[in-house]
Amino acid sequence: MDGRDYINIVTDTVKRAYTEQADAVKEAAEILAKTVESKHNVFVFGCSHAGILAEEVFYRTGGLAVINPIFFPAMMLNTRPITMTSSLERVPGIGKTIFEKNGIKKDDLLIIHSVSGRNTVPVEMALAAKEHGVHTVCITNLKYSKAVTPRHPGGKRLFEVCDTVLDNMGEVGDAAVSIEGLPEKIGPTSTAVGAALINAIVIDAVNKMIEDGIVPPVLMSANLDGGDEHNTKIFEEYKDNIFYM
After folding, report:
1. Which residues of the chain register pLDDT less than 50?
2. Chain centre distance of CA 217
């Protein structure tokens, strides 16, 4: 197998993940639209590489301005040594603290990305959200998650504690490409598929807002004429729902 096979795998997986989960995508989109329309808050979180999806959808051209990333420094890819992120993701208490310190409130929306779904921090955050009446959507890998034991003290994995579950339909271990002579697989698919799913949710949410007669707070590129002026108006209108400025 080679790079061409990887592209085909990713393309096929994106199509399958959306097509087979259209109802779940619609459900997540409707929750997102309702959250924005009611002027509640939207947050996205992931540890290490899973956090790339939080970077993907915030302050993004063609994205919703009100999506807030949760960047906990010790869980990000600029942490050194990087292996510390893997250790800390398993520590009880951190997820609950991250949730509490980010001002997430009842009827807000928390989107959590965790590929294996087995580690303590994302599960704790989802459980804390449930306790506080916060809607939860997770993007995870069900095949992978069901193949591993949970590390959360309560024995739960992320897909077992979230309101809406989206499967990235990847392989156990995430990597999808086998090469003769190499025992390990290469070519993880979770970021590409996850980015497609979360952008599909945003697009379907924008469609729902338009149907409801709401002007969606969609950002323009700051490199287009009129972009700065357009975005400034949105930042002012939604200043109570944007926490990254």
Report:
1. none
2. 19
